Amino acid sequence: MSHAPTSLQSALIRQTRCLFGNETPSFAIHWGARMLHSRLLNYVDEVARTGSIRKAADRLNVAASAISRQILALETQLGTPIFQRLPKKLILTAAGEVLIGHVRQTLKELTRTQIKIEELKGLRRGEITVAMMSGLASNLVPSTVKEFRAANPRVKLNLTLFNTGAEIQLAVANGEADLGIGFDFGKDSSLKVLARGVGRLGAVMAPNHPLAKRTSIRLSDCTDYPLVIADSTSAIRPYLDTAFARVAIDLQPAIETNSIEIMRHAVILNDGITFLTPFDVESERRAGRLTYVTIRELAHDTQALMLIGHVRGTSAIASVLAEMLKAMIRDVAE
Q1: Which of the two residues, 129 and 106, has the higher pLDDT score?
Q2: What angle do CA 241, 210, 207 make, to 5 degrees?
Q3: Is the pTM value of this prediction over 0.85?
């Protein structure tokens, strides 16, 4: 049974004809449309997530003008705008909201199709080493690992924990790890950033905590409760020291630790408060074990969760895992 093309598919085919000319061979239309389809969907998705063509261009490593041109062409061919242009932000129109559901579902289907193609190419064996910070190992990464293992049961995964971002970068640069995932990595000419998502530091506490129902709080609200604080070796601590000093509050931790697991469990078990990003507590928030509340003084203090690889590239099977980790970061990032 044949199906009429959707407006989006028709628009993409018209874009392909513009590239190849009116007398386009059928294979060129289909393959060209697929290539444009994947690229354009990523453009639309990233602009919708970031609210900015410039930010989307930075994340996708393409020219902002290319994204703008493709989106304008799509809007023209669809006959309606998909983004409302505000002075400082782009937001989806009603038509854009309808479209984004199709976009994200199609991107998931493309990932699943890529996995099937890799299976046919015999890339479902091998070994991958991922270097990461300990907090990620017990929170965000396990769900992605579970999904990857279900599709790749014969691939061995080595998940190696490190205390600092510098150690993770060194492991990837030296070839000890295929991929690295952690926060606020510095620049390194031997490495490339595969994905980046930003999370804002906030207060984390048990759902029954007296402050848990508030939409936002101040640092001064937190000092009446036991504070569980990251120690000086953590990437979080400099942000906290600066924020408390700014409001002239003497930081007095009840517990100081380099373990995000201890920070999470300590506040689950008592009326304490810790300071983490949504990345650090994603699974606990979904399960209803922890609550994240924004802090006004930390509104501009963010951490960047980054996925890195070697500049020379990595194995095909590691690239499949990298795509899944990229999707995870996109889904959780602000």
Answers
A1: 129
A2: 90
A3: no
